[in-house]
Amino acid sequence: MSNDKPVNEPREYAGAGTLFEGKFGDIPFESPVSPVQLGPEDPFRFSCHPGISCFNECCRNIDIQLLPYDILRLKNRLATTSYDFVARYTVPFQMDQHGMPGLKLCTKSGSRECVFLGEEGCTVYTDRPTACRYYALGSMGVRRKDSAEVEDMYFVVREPHCKGHEEPKTQTVDAYRREQGIDKYDAMNREWRDIVLKKRSSGPTIGAPSGRSLQLFDMCSYDMDKFREFIQTPGFNGIFAADAIGLDRLLEDEEALLAFAMRFLKQVLFGEMTIPQRAGAREARLEHRRAHIRERRVAAAGEERASSRAYDMPADGGDETQEDDRE
């Protein structure tokens, strides 16, 4: 059977031909992505192992986005904090035009080689990121028009260096995902992916997020140590009761903490109220906000009066000089 055709001729992605027809004829290379959509039970031919001639070549030219569970696993593997891991091993980038923060894995200085590639292969293999586990499959979530559900789509990635497609092993997408330990990673990252998709699909409906929202997204996505501190602050505890959210468990179980962070993000960003609040907490928060606004206005008015006196200009716009002249 030819390697150039999927094993069971899976269905083409609907509309792909008309969507891209005639638009990229000047691109001087062929896309490594196979233009067919694979389902969970569709088979494909691929195998990677230490004896293959291209072993580790995919690690020498990387562009890997890290997802929240990737960072959790890697920072624990290296026995460091979320902050230190992000500072040492990642590069920030913007996932959309509004500046939604994303992180990519660092490469070695002066090259495209993964920072975790050693002489014998991956030095963090059992905790490798989601993208590494999927290779040579690609994955994406699609929210179709007028549907609230996110559909998982898979496709084959064929890069020129990769000889794994010439290996005789054939397996289904689901079997490969189980073999690579992807199920756990997808389960832990799914809520985060849904948040990103909802933000993108909502577009103008939600509008550009505030700076505070972006900071909150960054903390809940990439810094469980800081989020753990956050849920212990007086302000947070004034809104959410410790018993109601299972605070003790969250402080001990980082996977539960990450799942709770995603619920919290959905509640703050989209109003999906799944975390119970203390009775009267919303009203108290609104009153606190109003009081803060009043204080800022009073302070601003005081500064304006002080500035007017400094320049001998009356705040009410009167003309004191005329009165002085009459005297």
Q: Could you explain the architecture of this structure?
A:
44% of the residues lie in helices and 11% in strands. It is of the alpha+beta class and 327 residues long. Among the domains are: 16-187, no CATH class; 281-326. The strands form four sheets. The protein has a three-stranded antiparallel sheet with strand order 2-4-3. Strands 1-9 form a two-stranded antiparallel ribbon. A two-stranded antiparallel ribbon has the order 5-6. Helix 2 crosses helix 3, helix 6 packs parallel to helix 12 and helix 7 packs antiparallel against helix 12.
Topology diagram in text:
Layout: H1 16-20, E1 43-45, E2 65-66, H2 68-77, H3 82-89, E3 90-94, E4 101-105, E5 117-118, E6 121-122, H4 130-134, E7 137-143, E8 150-156, E9 170-172, H5 173-179, H6 182-202, H7 211-222, H8 224-230, H9 234-237, H10 242-245, H11 247-252, H12 254-270, H13 281-310, H14 320-326
Antiparallel strand pairs: 1-9, 2-4, 3-4, 5-6, 7-8
